[in-house]
Amino acid sequence: MKKVLALVLAAVICALGFGACSGGKTYSDLSVIEGVKLGSEVYGIAFRTGSDMVQKVDEITAELFADGSMKALADKYGLTDGLVEDFIPSDDHGEPMAESDYEYIKSKGVMVVGITNFEPINYKDENGEWTGFDTEYARMVGEKLGVEVEFKQIVWGNKEMELQSKSIDCIWNGMTVTDAIKNAADVTGAYLTNYQVVVVKDAQTYDSLESLAGKTIVAESGSAGENAVKADEYLSQNYKPVEAQSNALLEVQSGSADACVIDYIMANSMLGE
Q1: Which of 29, 41, 121 is nearest to 78 (CA)?
Q2: Confidence of residue 44 (pLDDT cuts 50, 70, 90)
Q3: ∠222-101-155 over CA atoms, to 5°?
Q4: What does the pLDDT look like over 45-71, one tens digit per residue?
Q5: How many other CB atoms sit within 10 Å of the CB of residue 189?
Q6: Is residue 92 packed enough to be buried (19+ CB in 10 Å), middle (13-18) or exposed (0-12)?
Q7: Domains (range + CATH), the chain
Q8: Which of 114, 241, 245, 252 is the most buried (most CB within 10 A)?
Q9: Which H, E and C letters describe 193-209, residue by residue?
Q10: What whole-number distance in Å separates Cα of residue 115 and Cα of residue 153?
């Protein structure tokens, strides 16, 4: 019961914007297992298969890299080391849609962006407003496209369904480019690099993947972290998916889980690693 109450309280604090989930380094009791890097990945933006938005966003992104805007944004959010050195537009597109996705979004006057609470990518500031690297990046692109940008929080495991149903117009939330997402959508060129890390509360006991064999491991459903867990013989033995990476951290902090697998970018921001 105490663990449940701890989770509920932490969630309420996050929802009320008291800084417990952004910028406050409130997970100082947690740490990343040193020397463990699970995979190598890149971030891209997903649009519906055949969408002409991919080319338009890639063109704008190339301009933002060329004029230094992306570098300045990365510096602001501590992501300079993760920024790709050379932005390369995507050349992997599906058959063009019967109707222009760009014209559809322009006619609405708003581009709906599917996100999760993921600091420093997309998160709420002390005023309850969305901020972060991808938040500002999306707004810069929206301004050049001449449309407003609306952020919609989604369950990450349902992201492809949300996109295809037009509940959102794109997935733009530190999205790892995988074969699975490329089979379900068209994806822009990569703009950030990343990898997965293992976060624990008891760093003396859990100092390797082997030490976590049979222990409760959590990761965000449908994420690169989940893929990394399932691919590892030790982490996968007692795995439990959760809805968001922030939930995974709360599970470890409360003691409901022994470890979680999350993006290095988030761990670096939330734990100050």
Answers
A1: 121
A2: very high
A3: 20
A4: 999 999 999 999 999 999 999 999 999
A5: 22
A6: exposed
A7: 26-39+195-270 (3.40.190.10), 42-192 (3.40.190.10)
A8: 245
A9: EEEEEEEECCCCCCCCC
A10: 5
